[in-house]
# Entry
Amino acid sequence: LMMTRGATFLARLERSHDKIVEVSQPFLAAVSKVLVHGKSRLVAEALVCACKSKEIEVIYLVRDKNKLLVM
# Structure
């Protein structure tokens, strides 16, 4: 029972993750620069997806105090 519920939870979590990435795209298309601080797989995937669609010119992703990654 616990294994079934765990699998159901993970499947719902993954679908939610994909849905949030999809829904975020129109908001990311309206800007040319995005500054993000922190680690989030969800935000990173949304930004990568937006970059692939060529709707964002420059994204600055801050990962650490002294490191700046430009995508």
